[in-house]
Task: structure prediction
Amino acid sequence: MKTVSRAGIFAAVGALGFALQTAVLWLLAGRTEMPVVPATLVATEAAVLHNFAWHVRWTWADRPAGPRALLGRLLRFNLANGGVSLAGGAVLMAILVHGCGVHYLPANLASVLICSAVNFAASDGWVFRAEPQAARGEAGGLGGRRGSCGGGRPRAGQTTYRATAT
Result:
């Protein structure tokens, strides 16, 4: 997939995640009166998990991973995207709002856009890097098939030949 197409899909998933984050924040802070900071953390993690699921199925669907590699990707995604979104967003908001006098809504938009660019680079190069065949749970051997050239157990219905001593 071309990087431009992947970046567009990444942005679409991010927009959906931003909408989810805003809805969860509104529900927790606005309706249940949860304090804003814990509500923001929960809302951000909800968006991170949402985005990860869609990136696996859509943005980086051409880079499959087995269960173990997928768990590693989830951890890396939380570290990279969650960390950049929380820490980077806080720093950028402080600089833009308090240091430069920008209103918090345009500052938030700028912060999200800047963090998104960093998140895309981290996701493409580190989180969703192409996994070796073994990490995806695929077998090696000729043609990538188990059972070829004596590698592994035969499949159901596969004829096996044994060498006999003469």
